[in-house]
Every structure is written in C-alpha cells, then in structure tokens.
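Lab notebook page, bench 4
Experiment: in silico fold of construct C2
Operator: M.H.
Input chain length: 87 residues
Purpose: comparison with the prior construct
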Amino acid sequence: RRNIFLSVKETLNNVLKHSHATSIKIDIEVSNKLAIQIADNGKGIDLQNLRKHGNGLKNIARRIESIGGTFTIENNNGAVTTLELPL
C-alpha cells in the first residue's frame, strides 16, 4: 500500500509542478490486476530531456517494480501515467 500511495502522490506532485495542466483524470480498475491511470491536459513530458538529478520517476519505477508491477508514462494530449499491479 505504501509503494502505491507514494507512487500516486509523486505522479500528482509532478503534474502540479511541471505540467501546467488545468485538469487531472484518475482511473482505477480492479480485475485480476490493479490498474491506476493518471492523465492530465498539460504540456506533456519530454522523455528525452529529463532532469539529470531528478529522482521522482526513478522512485516510482523502483517502487512499482519492487512489488511486481509496471510503470509507464507517455504523451497523449498531456502526460498519461499508468501503474499496473497483479492482484
């Protein structure tokens, strides 16, 4: 629970600090896995030009992978972050 909470918290913090978004949509789906998708309508993310000393995305990936899940982030009219975990 802690790893999921901290990963969602970091994602929301990144949206607030960097995206200039005016809306955030959070979708949670539970089936044979837990899927959390956080999408914003901001400027997106430049995956080729990330801060060298930033640890937020690395921490999210490390936390989610440590509990057997996957973490992805992509551009789609803003940034879309997906966390998936087996149940």
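Observations: The longest strand covers residues 33-40. The helical segments are 2-19, 56-66.
Next step: discuss at group meeting.
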